[in-house]
Write a structure and sequence with these properties.
There is one protein chain. The strands form four sheets. The chain has a four-stranded antiparallel β-sheet with strand order 4-5-6-7, with no helix packed on it. The chain has a four-stranded antiparallel β-sheet with strand order 8-9-10-11, with no helix packed on it. A four-stranded antiparallel β-sheet has the order 12-13-14-15, with no helix packed on it. The chain is built from no helices and 15 strands. With about 250 residues, it is mainly beta.
Length: about 250
């Protein structure tokens, strides 16, 4: 319909920044009609320069997007568990950024109404499964603990209360890898592969791969194929590796 959506790290005052989403159009070679889809107050931006998230995917009239925790482990504030802030969350809005009334926290006082799920660290992949419209996410752990997650409404994915990873200096983040009420990853990669973009294949050129999930990897330079049956992984393989960061 002509709208172009951009997510980016927006510079704030005093060397701070935050994930922001805008949309606009291109007319006669110029960027015009810009509108803000998601933003927080600049005075609430953080000094950290990492973990922005920023992946986006549409499902019909809804836009899902990710916001990372925005702080490294040694400075983590646990904001991924704080429902009054946008950090460390998967969000759902309408195409113009307005909040659907059936979002889980839309009517909860003090909560960010766009939140769909929480407890994530740095989501770098979002994709909709065309077979059942399920939402899937990959996220960077710290040292270990990269994850593939099936994102469900009002689910808590545990960061930083539970994790299979550790701080980059080898010290623990949490003494637990699971806890009641917190979701487990469908796949956990330890050591980290630095999981990136994900896509469900829907083309016709490779019919045996139709519906399969493909996952990129930065640090380990892998391209992965995963076959899912509901939430269960029934097959996984490396299509190729060591050709560069995917």
């Amino acid at each position: 319909n002509g709208w172009i959506y951009l997510s980016y790290s927006d510079r704030g005052p005093h060397d701070t920044a935050m994930t922001k989403i805008v949309r606009g159009r291109v007319r006669d070679g110029r960027w015009v009609d810009q509108e803000t889809v998601f933003a927080i107050r600049p005075e609430d931006y953080q000094p950290s320069s990492v973990l922005f998230g920023g992946r986006m995917v549409f499902q019909g009239q809804y836009l899902f997007f990710s916001v990372g925790e925005r702080g490294m482990e040694q400075g983590t504030t646990g904001k991924a568990q704080d429902l009054s802030v946008a950090n460390g969350k998967i969000h759902r809005v309408f195409a113009d950024g307005s909040v659907p009334s059936d979002n889980p926290l839309a009517r909860q006082a003090g909560a960010v109404g766009s939140i769909w799920a929480w407890g994530v660290r740095n989501p770098q992949g979002l994709a909709i499964n065309p077979r059942d419209q399920g939402l899937w996410e990959t996220e960077h752990g710290p040292r270990g603990g990269d994850e593939l997650n099936h994102i469900k409404r009002a689910a808590n994915y545990g960061w930083p209360l539970i994790t299979y990873g550790m701080n980059y200096d080898g010290t623990p983040i949490s003494d637990r890898t699971e806890a009641p009420g917190l979701e487990q990853p469908v796949i956990n990669w330890t050591p980290s592969i630095a999981a990136s973009e994900i896509e469900f294949y829907s083309g016709d050129r490779f019919p045996r791969w139709k519906g399969n999930l493909f996952i990129g990897s930065l640090a380990q330079q892998k391209f992965l194929r995963v076959v899912l049956d509901g939430e269960k992984v029934v097959h996984r393989e490396e299509v190729f590796s060591r050709l560069g960061r995917v």
